[in-house]
Amino acid sequence: MDRSNARTDKVDAAKFRIAFYSHDGYGLGHFRRSLLLAQKAQEHLGGLEIMIVTGSSRAYFFDLPPDTQIVTLDTVTKDRDGNYTPRNDLMTLTETLSRRRKTLRRSLTGFNPDLLVVDHVPTGLRGELLPLLADLKARGTRLTIGLRDIIDEGPLVKNSWIKDGCSQLIEHLYDHIWVYGNQNVFDLGKLYGLSSSACERIEYLGYLRRSVHMVGPKETASTSIQVPSALKRIVCVSGGGEDGYPIGSTFLETLELYPHKLEGTLITGPFMSRADSQSLASRFGSISNLQVLRFTTHLEQHINSADLIVTMGGYNAMMEAISTRKPTVVIPRVFPRKEQWLRASLFASRGLVRCLHPDDLTTASLFSEIKDALSSPPPPTPEERGLSMNGVGNFLSRVEKIRQQFFQLRKVHPVAKSDLIGA
Fold first, then answer.
1. Which segments within 253-313 are labelled E, that is strand?
2. Nearest to 57 by CA among 223, 202, 241, 209
3. Which CATH superfamily is domain 2-209+390-420 in?
4. In tens digits, what is the pLDDT along the chain, a chain of 423 residues?
């Protein structure tokens, strides 16, 4: 499904064209990262045509910056064992992947990007970007792999990348390797077994600071931000929500025990099952100091209004927390990946957050963490603990450098890439 904002069907050859790919097999994280970068690029660079190709079924909820379009792929999710399965019960996984491949090829070859930024999965979900990547590069598209700071434990990613051909693609096909993190926090190239030549090409851009003034989904009355009160306000975010019920339930039970001290908002996430979200709403919805939201319009504003944040340990959630210097209790996911646990532990060791293992999660342990966090001094800034938070700025500077190179090439060879659309 294509959806565009102020865009005609014809590609404007005078504009620099950027395509983002985010497979989004679980939650919204990859799409939200791509949308952030697209929004910032349109805001600060201008003169761009942008396409975001995503597997997120909720992408259409979000407003888009100008001259930006979204193409949604048939959606998949993960089962309890971490294996992909189609969200559409009437289709097999093979059928779903075939449809995704066709949509990808039709959309990206028609758009003919100057720059393609692939988020997280070098080959695409189940290799769906192959052989499309090579075809795009032959047309002149600059290929970039954008990686979050941590994917999983080193040996697991190293073996997986070798098995799936990701290491080969990164080393021999991608023109740029951009990491949205710091080498001094997590040395991705070394820990994931990339060659010395590939490691030398990695550019650690820094973490992507999240702003509270971002393009977000359309506002609805049911997701309004509560007015200030004398109670300490706690906001709990359970990621996309598919595995967020234990955290959400424990959070609400904890605050139910202390109605005269704390008030809380639980944002379940759009992928929590309707049965689970309705169960939480019916159990806690009538309690005056609690609010249960399924899908908020502006997550950053909710976080900015909180006195304390309880969250899982996903990349975007952690960036939102440390960017605001709010006391934060992180309850990271530990299965099927250790990514969130590794990130939460590293940030906790720097005093940026407090980390509670999900196996230790009880109302007593959570309240103890909340109480201690509220009575402690504010956490330090990320910069005070050695983190660079200028990932967005560094991303923009590199995009601008690539754009200038393309414009110089077009001056020298005016009959070039833009004429290859029908090739």
1. 262-267, 290-293, 308-311
2. 241
3. Glycogen Phosphorylase B; (3.40.50.2000)
4. 554 443 334 556 689 999 999 997 667 889 999 999 999 999 999 899 999 999 988 888 888 999 999 999 999 987 777 788 888 888 999 999 999 999 999 999 999 999 999 999 999 999 999 999 999 999 999 999 999 999 999 999 999 999 999 999 999 999 999 999 999 999 999 999 999 999 999 999 999 998 754 444 443 334 445 555 678 999 999 888 888 999 999 999 999 998 888 999 999 988 899 999 999 989 998 899 999 998 775 788 889 899 999 999 999 999 999 999 999 999 999 988 999 999 999 999 999 999 999 999 999 999 999 999 999 999 999 999 999 999 999 999 999 999 999 988 877 666 555 444 433
Which of the 8 DSSP states describes residue 114? S
* Residue recorded with tokens 């080959």: 123
131 preceded by a cis bond (ω within 30 of 0):
yes
Residue 1 vs residues 4, 12, 201: alpha-carbon distances, Å: 10, 21, 36
* 405 token code pair: 């190179």
Topology (CATH) of 221-385:
Rossmann fold (3.40.50)
Written as six digits, the tokens of 265 are 């908002």
Q: With the CA atoms of 210, 214, 217 and 220 taken in that order, what torsion angle do they form, in degrees rounded to the nearest 10? A: 110
CB-based contacts of 37, cutoff 8 Å, min separation 6:
20, 117, 146, 208, 392, 395
**Where do the domains of the chain lie?**
2-209+390-420, 221-385
